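Example 5.3 — 6-phospho-beta-glucosidase
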Amino acid sequence: MSELKKDFLWGGSAAAHQLEGAWQIDGKGISIADVMTAGTKKKSREITDGILPEKIYPNHEGIDFYHHYKEDIKLFAEMGFKAFRTSIAWTRIYPNGDDREPNEKGLIFYDNLFDELHKYGIEPVITLTQFEMPYHLVVKYGGWRNRKMISFFTRFAETVFNRYRNKVKYWMTFNEINNQTSMLNKWSLFTNSGLKIKAKEDAELTMFQASHYELVASSLAIQIGHKINPNFQIGGMFSMGPIYPVTPDPKNVFKAQRLMQLNHWYVDVQSSGRYPKWLKQYFSTKGYNLDITLIDEDILREGTIDYIGFSYYASHVVEASKNEPQNFITPTANNIIKNLTLKDSEWNWTIDPVGLRFALNWFNDRYKLPLFIVENGLGAKDSITEDGKIHDSYRINYLRQHIQQVKLAVEYDGIDLIGYLTWGPIDLVSAGTGEMSKRYGFIFVDRNDQGKGSLKRIKKDSFNWYKKVIASNGENI
Ligand code: BG6
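Solution (predicted structure tokens):
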């Protein structure tokens, strides 16, 4: 029976806009994350036209990792981290996105950050872009609906690949590129692709076109990266939430299969360089005449990913409707229903540890590529007790149950797994709601939803627990 590899990458994962803060320091430009207000579980974040003085924008300060990274990395090292994933804020490097020259001060920040990680033997795992892009590219070019974005992105990618060619080995191009498939979420269209859908515009058509340009940009970046350093491992990054049928009724089973196909066609393209046939049929049924050139098709085939990085939080259940179309594709209808066999988190995310093993097997069977769990965790409210501590047994339970399934997948199913990174090892701003109170960390940060607090870092109970897990390479959980 195989065990976790000796060099298994245990650690944690974050994103520039959710922790760095310092939104206007050292030449940084305004990113799309900077025009998103604070929301709540019930009230969506607003996307404003520029920055409005009366609104709260939690990403402006984040947890001020920009000025605290040394202290924070020291804590990660104390837990024994082998890897830390974060993203590069595109706007620190190219403040407007279409600038001719990169911003040296931004480049220096990441030089220092990566050096600090290496000081402790922590491998940086870097996402080129995680839910952000220069806001200027949205205003001037309409975001990824514009083919010009490909050259802006590849210039950014080339700059950072070159600069950090000896400091970073593991890269990912776009975070959760597949999130935007759901037409129900206008937030994803904005955060993934900088799309603000205009009146009378066909959102789905625009989403597919934007996605295509991103896929081409990703493939070009992979080719550029491999030329700069053939040892680079450049992966895709996908959101994975298994979709189960509500009953064995074949219609429900097929609906679940179709939704899994629909949510993961990006993985098909990024791993094989080809669009799946069912999707091409869908484009022609809908009369979508996408701008996909023969040159694009060559680029996609020549720039495939080295591994599959994915996030896993929850699973979903689906029920086919009475009047499903023949292709079972209903992008604007919500067929997702509550799983009555499982409990939900405080934010109504279904907790399903076995689903993680299912996900690992599903990816493995379809793509035969190394897998990397780059996000997993429980968003929960924490409170400081009278002893000044945070007793987060609920978080330990969640992670323990998921790690148990990871081990089973490696030991019994032979999954080739690079590592396991928890989401938000230090509390940070929630991407979905903009709240601070939705906490994932082993390290508490004193900051509330109104942006008030000392920013003091406090170790939670889970801190010492994860330290033991890593020290025993997953034996002592
Ligand atoms: C993933 C994203 O979707 O989930 C992260 O890659 C995000 O950026 C994480 O923070 C958790 O979601 P949320 O909404 O709880 O922050």
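Remark. Residues 32 and 135 are 5 Å apart (CA to CA).
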